[in-house]
Amino acid sequence: MSSKAISMIIIVVIVAAIVIAAIAGYIFMTSTGKPKPSSPTTSKTTLPATTSSSPPPAQTTTTTTETAGTMTQTGPAELNLKEIRKFEDMLNIAKAMTYRFEDSNGSYVNIGYEVLGTEEVDGTACWKIRITTESSDGEPESYTIWVSQQDYLTLQLELSDGTIVKGPMIAGLWPALLASIMWPFQWVWSAPRALWQQYYHGGLVYLGTEVVTYGETTLTVYKYKWVPPPSAPREIEFIEVWIAELPNGYGIVTKFHVQNVDGSWGEYRLISIKLA
Hints:
By secondary structure, this protein is an alpha+beta fold. Helices cover about 20% and strands about 45% of the residues. The chain has two domains: about 5-20 and about 85-185, no CATH class; about 35-80 and about 185-275, no CATH class.
């Protein structure tokens, strides 16, 4: 097998690992502790590297701007925020973005993209995009990809060592990369709505709004808490979802917290995000 083919296999494995890490983040396996107190006034703490018996503090600065407590047994009204469905939606938010998510076990994933411009590859207009990835399970990776503006096929790939790769073996690479970039922006309202619909409805409580600073970016966050009805299986005590507003009316899920009746819990949360 050629060195180029080996490099491609490595990249595909890395992408798959990132997607698996994202999915595992809200499956929440093994952490135990107590729920975090809701609606803090002002806090700034550092996230620990390992899971402890108490809830991990968020590496954010939060300022409560509004509180509310309405429970509904009917379908909740949707937030007026858009979910990202295609790459052009990402470009409406920022031409470059880097974000970091971490789960309650201390595992993390950093994902970034930067649109360097447009170039032609073999006569086809392409976006030239630099992708950076890093996770707790792997080394940092960086590569540049040329994506056709017509059909989203990958026409060219430049590895971190300068190797240029073309051909059918990379044509379908972009959808996997895009999925790993877009997943937190696709649950903006589907997450709380799916909880309400899938688990015998239950009560969806609006907890209020906070202004939260994630690294260099300050966002308005809408907080919801879903409580299952008595008729549902009671392994889950409640699920809390935080949804933040991004530029141009888009949104991102910044926290997904599962609290079980036996005291165990799991959480996947945004630590930092930078838009450019």
